[in-house]
Amino acid sequence: MLLERIYDEDLSQTSYLIACQESGEALVVDPRRDIQVYLDLAAQHGLTITAVTETHLHADFLSGVREIAAVTGATPYVPGTGGEDWQYGFEAERLMDHDTIQLGRITVTARHTPGHTPEHLSYLLADGAFADEPGYLLSGDFVFSGDLGRPDLLDEAVGLQDTRFTGAKQLFASLKSVFLALPDHVQVFPGHGSGSACGKAIGSLPSTSVGYERHFAWWGPFLQNDDEQGFIDELLNGQPDAHAYFARMKRQNQEGPALLGERTAPREVSAEELARGLEGRTLALVDTRPAAEVHAGTVPGALNIPMLSKAAGHIAWAFDPDTDDAQLVVLAPDAARAAEYADHFVRVGIDALVGFVPSLEGLPTTVPSVITAAELDDLGEAVTLLDVRTRTEHAAGTIPGARQLSAGKVLFHQDQLPSQEAGPLVAFCQSGLRNTVAASALRRAGHDVIELEGSYAAWARWKAEQAESPAVVTAS
Prior knowledge:
Layout: E1 2-8, E2 13-20, E3 25-29, H1 36-44, E4 48-53, H2 65-72, E5 75-79, E6 93-95, E7 100-103, E8 106-112, E9 121-127, E10 136-140, E11 143-144, E12 147-148, H3 153-156, H4 163-179, E13 187-190, E14 208-209, H5 210-216, H6 220-224, H7 228-236, H8 246-255, E15 267-268, H9 271-280, E16 283-287, H10 291-294, E17 303-304, H11 311-318, E18 327-331, H12 335-346, E19 353-357, E20 369-371, H13 373-379, E21 384-387, H14 391-396, E22 403-404, E23 425-428, H15 433-444, E24 449-452, H16 455-468
Parallel strand pairs: 3-4, 4-5, 5-6, 10-13, 15-19, 16-17, 16-18, 18-19, 20-24, 21-22, 21-23, 23-24
Antiparallel strand pairs: 1-2, 2-3, 7-8, 8-9, 9-10, 11-12, 13-14
Helix pairs in contact: 4-7, 11-12, 11-15
């Protein structure tokens, strides 16, 4: 058996290619939408992708199941579990509890493990060349290294009411009836790593085991003592903010993501064409430079996405394709680098990147407003302080008077902000990275935003320095 782990640092998301090397058949599980990596892996190992599936309706990225099936002719499989409200809206084979997919001598068995979502499946793998019993579990967003999939996303992201409690009860039951019924030696390969918003304390290890989680995971004692209520209370406490774009991902994944087909390389756009497009709001620039360079001057209304490695998550915070029909032009040295941004963007359903500019030469520029902590102290109540960190970070300490709305929500919940006529916003995160993304999105939406230089960390240092410096008294 061949098991290849494909990890996306951008979204902390994992997909897998499973294959029987004897028969040459391969299955892809939880693929992202830019599928070339799976085609390349199959070609490298001389395999044919004959099947593709996923563990559940994802909230943080768009699935590549339809894309792989269309390109390779593989049979698409999706969960058929969870009830009527959680059925997929496109043609695919439905998998129920205990259904199997056969890859030569490898048997893949679907197990219904609801909790994170009602339809969630995990996949047990039995390598018939060595054993008749399963030795591996692809756990999706059910069990992570050191954590569990959060059961509150349907409330947080989709707008349902109190489904978190039902989901938490389902997780408890899934752990008892499925996970802990497995032998300790079964290796567990989860769908996310550290940094994902699909759990609150996901470990960085790429895999774990049933025995390790049974004995050392935070939830182990609750299961051992059959303490369902204690488990629910601990599970739901302190879950991170869910990004607003998750609702769109859920909807599009259930309907079936649009097929990309053969993709065109981004073209170089002239400064004149971009300037016209910016004026008519038919084009928008994605400025990929670090915040310090952007603060020295950028194009009015540009979206600041300063890290290619986090471009998918950040563009999904800053651009809503449901309400904004502008096409995107990225600041990039060449078409190849622009295509890398396009790959990241399509993972979150933003297919609008059409071109690139190698520089800002010939374009109108503006200097974004930035202030220091000392300057902020002088402004008093003339501004509204906006903390774009998570609820947990905000609760642990913030600038007095600041209201909280996380960076992944600000564009989508502008109704929670003061009117644009109420004066400027002073926005901050922890160190400045999330803030520059959120501030650029709000500026494009028409808000007057001032960025706090160095964000909360710089403000906290400044306050500490002020406390340590005794007042200077001069004699008259």
